[in-house]
Write a structure and sequence with these properties.
Elements lengths: L1 H19 L5 H18 L3 H26 L2
Length: 74
């Protein structure tokens, strides 16, 4: 299972690079990886960390919506 979480971490890092390049798809990657971390941390009873990723998930959704509106104005 450790390899799986390394892959999730790699995807999260890819999301950061896409964000720097202003590619909106980064928020989809972050939504997926944040959801995985929410579930994992909840299952291992790391509730504070799970909540932190829940907030990050909300931020990814917010960013996805905000960037759509920003692109509509161009």
């Amino acid at each position: 299972m450790s390899l799986f979480f390394w892959l999730v971490t790699a995807l999260s890092t890819l999301g950061m690079f896409l964000n720097v390049k202003k590619i909106r798809f980064c928020f989809i990657i972050w939504a997926i990886t944040n959801t995985i971390w929410i579930i994992h941390n909840y299952n291992i009873k790391e509730y504070a960390q799970s909540f932190s990723y829940l907030v990050a998930l909300g931020s990814a959704i917010w960013g996805f919506i905000a960037w759509r509106h920003k692109n509509d104005n161009k």
